[in-house]
Amino acid sequence: MAVLNVNIDHVATVRQARRTDEPDPVWAAAQCELAGANGITVHLRQDRRHINDRDVRLLKETVACKLNLEMCMAEPIVKIAEEIRPEQITLVPEKRAELTTEGGLDCVKYKKRLAEVVKRMHKKGILVSTFIAPEKGQIAASAEMGCDAVELHTGMYANAKTPGAIKRRLAELEAGKEFAMDNKLVVHAGHGLTYRNIAPVAQLKGLCEFNIGHSIIARAVFVGVREATAQMIELITKFSGS
Ligand code: PXP
After folding, report:
1. What is the CATH code of the structural domain delimited by 3-240?
2. Whose CA is nearest to atom 9 of ligand 1?
3. For ligand 1, atom 12, which residue shows the shortest CA distance?
4. Could you tell me the CA-to-CA distances from 176 to 27, 88, 94, 202 in Å, in that order?
5. What's 136-187 look like in SS3?
6. Is 192 close to ligand 1, i.e. is its CB under 6 Å away?
7. Whether pLDDT at 10 is above 80
8. d(CA 233, CA 2)
9. 173-231 pLDDT, tens per residue?
10. Which residue in 90, 85, 52 sits closest to 68, CA to CA?
11. Is 10 a catalytic residue?
């Protein structure tokens, strides 16, 4: 059965809108845990636009479930991960001008750096996942460089408008998942998933973890973080089966 990591970056985004100390992502993480989340995901961006170093340190101390640190492979960020030691990192590409992570990481192009980062993370006991398009080349490179998992980018599925396009994107995810499993990788999925589009993805057998942020935090504005998290867990559990 698949489980949910809640990406709480948007809680920090609201805080940063006034550069104050509320709402605190650490409080949000506790609410997610109380609702039964498997993990907490945060993206420590180089520009620190939402989550900052203090958040990651405190989350590492306070989160009892899995802490998944989303990050790029820039050296200062890699050093922070080595020092804080989250349970898992998810490697993403990062562009300063983007609103959110746009494409997947190019594991073929950055093979050498990826292998280095994987080695350093494993030395610290940290699991490594790569956020990639569901393409064979990217999956094979992730496996070859020693990654533990891949997070298949569901953004193209989420943005698909017609039934035919949705079907094609789902088929890509399914094929990517199979190929990743054949390569002994744990398979995660995320980006753009919502209460309305989660069902077909949750039904893909063998997906282990979902990383979902925007939709949950958006709903949390009206129903609270705990309830919004519980509602997403209910859907994932219902559709992924036991
Ligand atoms: N996975 C990765 C790698 C991401 O970069 C993000 C966005 O931060 C997510 C999942 C969550 O995406 P969303 O906020 O659209 O649910």
Report:
1. 3.20.20.70
2. 191
3. 191
4. 36, 21, 23, 15
5. HHHHHHHHHCCCCEEEEECHHHHHCCCHHHHHHHHHHHHHHHHHHHHCCCEE
6. yes
7. yes
8. 9
9. 999 999 999 999 999 999 999 999 999 999 999 999 999 999 999 999 999 999 999 99
10. 90
11. no
Ligand 1 atom with least separation from CA of 214: 14
Active site residue 191: yes
Q: 95: CA distance to ligand 1 center in Å?
A: 14
Tell me how far the alpha carbon of residue 7 lies from the centroid of ligand 1, in angstroms. 7
**Helix 163-182 and helix 136-144: axis angle, to 10°?**
20
Q: Which one of the listed residues 33, 50, 191, 209 is annotated catalytic?
A: 191
At 242, the pLDDT band (50, 70, 90 cuts) reads low
Q: And the tokens for 55? A: 């958040």
Q: Which residues contact residue 154 at a Cβ distance below 8 angstroms, ignoring those fewer than 6 apart?
A: 173, 189, 190, 191, 192, 193, 201
Structural domain boundaries in the chain: 3-240
What atom of ligand 1 comes closest to residue 92's alpha carbon? 3
Known catalytic membership, residue 174: no
Distant-in-sequence, close-in-space partners of 34: CB < 8 Å, separation ≥ 6:
226
* 110-133 residue pLDDT tens: 999 999 999 999 999 999 999 999
